Amino acid sequence: MLNTKWYKEFYDNCVLLGYRGSKVHGTWRPNTDPNSIDDIDVMGVMINPIEAYFGFGKQDTFERKEDPWDVVIYDIRKFVHLLCKMNPNVLSLLWIKSNYYIKVTPIGKLLIDNRNLFISKEAYKTFTGYAWSQLHRMERGICNGYMGDKRKKLVDKFGFDTKNATHLIRLLKMGIEFLSTGELNVQREDNTFLVDIKNGKYQIDWIKTEADRLFKLAEVALVNSKLPDKVDKDKVEKLLISILTKNFENIM
């Protein structure tokens, strides 16, 4: 990792950097596994130089693919915006276990310590919405353009995209738990079950029946949820302003 281009490009400016995806879910499989199509996913939050926050600004999302790494870095304003929208992938960076963080600065710790600001019933829409997207891709039963050759071969082997199926079930279960407890369980205790889905142990009809059951449970979890209806954006904005002010206090 230390010698990769993405690390050299972004590490110094990141206030928070950590693993995401299969690595933290406990479902990652090495490329020696004949069924593996897993990258090593990393997400980071950076604060750009002060010039980027005036005039026309600067790109707020940076994506880098460098085998086996799949890296996305967000400017802090974009990151907080996505947190407010209850983006499941972005939320996960504030809920991973400490050993999965690559870098945590005082500002990064402040984001983690204030993760409860980004809890609301709107998680129902995002988690089930992402799940519906995975279900749609899985049901189409075709090889999409985003797939590499190895993934296409697995679709041919199992008759559907088992990676989509895994995301579908995981997202629904995480969403139900989040709505019920306010806790995002990123490191999955059901990881063995999820790996079984990846490995094609379950037929597509079983996956669809299980997904239907979980969609219904998500509706029940929403009705019974004690979470706030929406994120308090005034509090979030105050946090963001305090972070940027602190970061640039010596040069303003």
User: At the third CATH level, what is the topology name of the largest domain?
Assistant: Beta Polymerase, domain 2
Based on CA atoms alone, the radius of gyration comes out at 19 Å
CA-CA gap between termini: 34 Å
What is the N-to-C order of secondary-structure elements (H for helix, E for strand)? Answer: HEHEEEHHEHHHHHHH
Going by helix content, strand content and strand pairing, the class is alpha+beta
For the largest beta-sheet, the strand count, sense and barrel status come to: 5 strands, mixed
- List low-confidence stretches: none
CATH 2nd-level architecture of the largest domain = 2-Layer Sandwich
Assign the CATH class of the largest domain: Alpha Beta
What does this structure look like?
With 252 residues, the chain is of the alpha+beta class. It folds into two domains: 5-116 and 231-248, Beta Polymerase, domain 2 (2-Layer Sandwich), CATH 3.30.460; 123-224, no CATH class. It has eleven helices and five strands. The chain has helices at 5-10, 22-25, 76-84, 88-91, 106-113, 123-140, 149-158, 162-181, 191-198, 204-224, 233-248, and strands at 14-20, 40-46, 61-66, 69-75, 101-104. It has a five-stranded mixed sheet. The longest helix is centred in the last third of the chain and has 21 residues, at 204-224. The two termini are 34 Å apart.
